[in-house]
Amino acid sequence: MYTMQVILSPLVPLFFGFVVYRLYLSGQFTQSALKKIWSGLAVVFLLLCGNSWMGIMAVESFRRLKPEEVQVLNFYDEARDYARCRPSGNQMPATCLEQSISQPSVIAKLVPTFLATSAYAPNHEGAKDRYLLNIRLKSGKSMWMILGKGNRSTPQTAWIEFNSGIRDGMHYGVYLNQPLYHVLSTQLKLQKWQKK
Question: What is the pTM for the complete model shown?
Answer without folding.
Answer: 0.72
